[in-house]
Amino acid sequence: MKRILITGAAGAIGSTLRAGLRGQYPLLRLSDARGMESAATGEELNTADLGDYAAVKTAMSGIDCAVHLGGIPKEAPWPSILEANIIGTYNLFEAARECGVKRVIFASSNHVVGFHRSSRSIGIDVEPRPDSRYGVSKVYGEALGRLYADKHGISVACLRIGSFRERPVDARQLATWISPRDMVQLVRCCIDAADYRYLLLYGVSNNTRARWKNPHAARVAYAPQDNAEDYAAEIAGRTATGAAAEFHGGDFCNLELTNKINNIE
Ligand SMILES: NC(=O)c1ccc[n+]([C@@H]2O[C@H](COP(=O)([O-])OP(=O)(O)OC[C@H]3O[C@@H](n4cnc5c(N)ncnc54)[C@H](O)[C@@H]3O)[C@@H](O)[C@H]2O)c1
Description:
Blueprint: E1 3-7, H1 12-21, E2 27-32, E3 43-47, H2 53-60, E4 65-68, H3 78-99, E5 103-109, H4 133-152, E6 155-161, E7 163-164, H5 173-176, E8 177-178, H6 180-192, E9 198-203, H7 243-246, H8 251-254
Parallel strand pairs: 1-2, 1-4, 2-3, 4-5, 5-6, 6-9, 7-8
Helix pairs in contact: 1-6, 2-3, 3-4
This protein binds nicotinamide-adenine-dinucleotide.
């Protein structure tokens, strides 16, 4: 994999990957709907709205591996989820097929399984239980990835990213945190790993309190170095309430909730 595209490159994770992957590949093409600081050696800038198929195809042309981060990263009204995450992710995979892109690394989210009880540790074999429209869009993205892997032979890795932050800020993140350094390593591992067809990985650091089993991590040799436990003392007492305390998805489960927590099996 020599020619790498990052969508959503102007964002929080995209900027971190930009810095972390710089100089590692002959081409890093950085795409976003908004502008970015000027290109360094080995970088190309591309402006594309994910809802515009022709623009996405231009961004994807000549690329070996696309790291698809672009989109809405939290709960939002349906029209914006539809445009960026549903139509945008379809455009990305379809352009990958048309342009002969070999591999897509899709930024999924832990919110695909948000309504599983956090008292249970879960793996990649549990049913999807999204906690938001946003989570539904990520279930859909994982399904698109499976379709394009099976039907068109594209190599796909879906990363169920936990909480990407400089440092964890509340009790939930003692389990869900992924550090910038581990995020870069995870994406590098997924770009560089020898042939795979479809992988599902949780994007988390080596957290003592992790509640997600990650069997595909070894397939790409992902060995996270950071542990949220190092920050446990400074965030003591910042615990969640209501549904956020009961389920893997945390605060997202409380948003717009009209059901009783006890009615959720
Ligand atoms: N940050 C986290 O903790 C976290 C956790 C789970 C999943 N993720 C996923 O990782 C990805 C990156 O997250 P982030 O935190 O860097 O988000 P971010 O909002 O900082 O970056 C997303 C980028 O996507 C771009 N974008 C949005 N809509 C677009 C469109 N229609 N066309 C083109 N570009 C568009 C934005 O301009 C932005 O630069 C997202 O897909 C998010 O769902 C993030």
